Amino acid sequence: MNSLPSTLRFYFTAARLPEFLAPIFDFWIRIFIADVFFKSGLTKIKTWDSTLYLFSDVYEVPLLNPEIAAWLATGAELGLPVLLVLGLFGRFAASGLFILNIVAVISYYSELSEPALDQHMFWGILLAVLLMLSRGKWSVDAWLEKRLHEQG
């Protein structure tokens, strides 16, 4: 009978390990996703003529002029990952990249292979985790929020 409380104590102590590791995992996800989108943005800039061709003749971007869409996508792919890594307006950055990912799939769906579609789904799931579950303890947002509570 006495071993039950110590067993429970051990279980609940061990069960806190994921909470301890959560900021590390959150930061790793932010870096991983940021790297994917930032490299894509760099590729768009390096091959701007090809980027304009793709947006005007290959991608089926809804509602936007292809050149505007190319500029917006490139800007988002270069700016939002920086915010994401820093954790500055992290949920805004995650939601922007989530939307960009969805638009990319919609715009290029007929050309995507099943593995490429799975990759976009994987990125979308990670971005959804950041958007909905991340508290970003290792982030500028967390630091700013802490400062606001200390002053208020």
Describe this structure in words.
The chain is mainly α and 152 residues long. The chain has one domain. Helix content is 82%, strand content 0%. The chain is built from 7 helices and no strands. Helix 2 (17-46) runs antiparallel to helix 4 (66-86) and helix 5 (90-108) runs antiparallel to helix 6. The longest helix is centred in the first third of the chain and has 30 residues, at 17-46. The chain is elongated and about 70 Å long. The termini are far apart.
Instruction: Count every beta strand, where a strand is a DSSP E run of 2 or more residues.
Output: 0
Mean pLDDT: 92
Return the string of H and E elements.
HHHHHHH
Coarse morphology:
elongated
Helical proportion, percent range:
over 70%
Fraction of residues in β-strands: under 5%
The major β-sheet equals: none
Q: Please compute the radius of gyration using only Cα atoms.
A: 20 Å
- Poorly predicted ranges (pLDDT <50, ≥5 residues)? none
Number of domains: 1
Structural class: mainly alpha
Number of helical segments with 4 or more residues: 7
